[in-house]
Structures are given as C-alpha cells and as structure tokens.
User: Fold these one by one.
Assistant:
Number 1:
Amino acid sequence: MDKPLHPRPHLFASSTFPPPETLASMPTTTPPLAAPSLSGELLEEIFLRFLPNEPSFLVRASLASKLSFGLLTSPNFQSRYREFHGALPMLGFFCNQIDTSDSEEEEEEPVSHFVPATTSDSC
C-alpha cells in the first residue's frame, strides 16, 4: 500500500488558490440584505386596487402575513375599499331546500347550499 489514495493529491495546490491560512484571515462577505418591507400604507393602497369581483385575491393576500391580515380586516380598510369601489357585487346567496323525493311522512331538515350569483340556476 505504498500508493497514495488519491492519484493527484495536490490537485488544488496551484497558484490560483490561496493557502488555507490566508483563507482564514480573509474578511468574510456580508450576507445579502433581506428585501425591503413595504409599509402598511403602501400595502393598503395596493390592496385597494384589487377588483371587488375577485374576492379570492383579498383572501390570498390576507393569508400572506400578519401585517396584511391586520390591514385587510381593519374597519378603516373595509370602509375605504367600499368608498373606492362603490357598491360591492353580490357573490351569491344561500338557499334552503327540503328534499321531497322520499315519500316518508317524517319532517326533513332543510339543506342549505350556496348559489353563486354568476349562474342562471336558482333554488
């Protein structure tokens, strides 16, 4: 076992790499800075521009951070949103139906389901 384990043990021993003791004394680079955070006022202005016919955008935005949740659920934002967009559209309504397909005499509980306003189906 006179052979070295590595056929070229000095592969990285070249003039392009500094010796290990020099590497230890070199200053380390600072980590990259985090992205700047947006102020609450700027976020509120952005959220105001979300269209009222796409409420899922506001729901997703409220789940992004505690700050955005607080902004979107505040009474101040809600009143500004209504003022900015006017009357909000009706998304749908709940309809109670009783299933009368069974001919049993016992009284059945009504079943509630959501009917979106964009469809032409009714109760």
Note: The first strand starts at residue 92 and ends at 97.
Number 2:
Amino acid sequence: MSIEKDIFAMHIQKAQIELALAEQDLEYAEPDFIDAAIYELMAKRKKLDTLIKKAKGCA
C-alpha cells in the first residue's frame, strides 16, 4: 500500500468517526439545535464521500 493510500485511509477513518459523532449529536440535539446538527451531519457525510472518491482515484 502506498503512503498516499495510507494517508487517505487515516483521513477516511477519522471522517467516519466524525460522522458517527455528528449522528449522535443529532440524536441528542435540543430542539433549538436540530437544524445546526443536521447541517453538521450533512457536512460530515459530504466530507466522507469526497475522501472515498479521492481515495478510489488513487487506486
């Protein structure tokens, strides 16, 4: 495995953790914070999707 693939793998793993935390934040968000939690979740999903696409491009 190349160094570049290793770096992408680390970033993807971190993004997966961030996404799981954002899902948890949404689950427990107070009503006034639900919109913010949704935007945060969408951003984390987009980040993970983008990293996966870039990693596949390195293959």
Note: The mean pLDDT is 94.
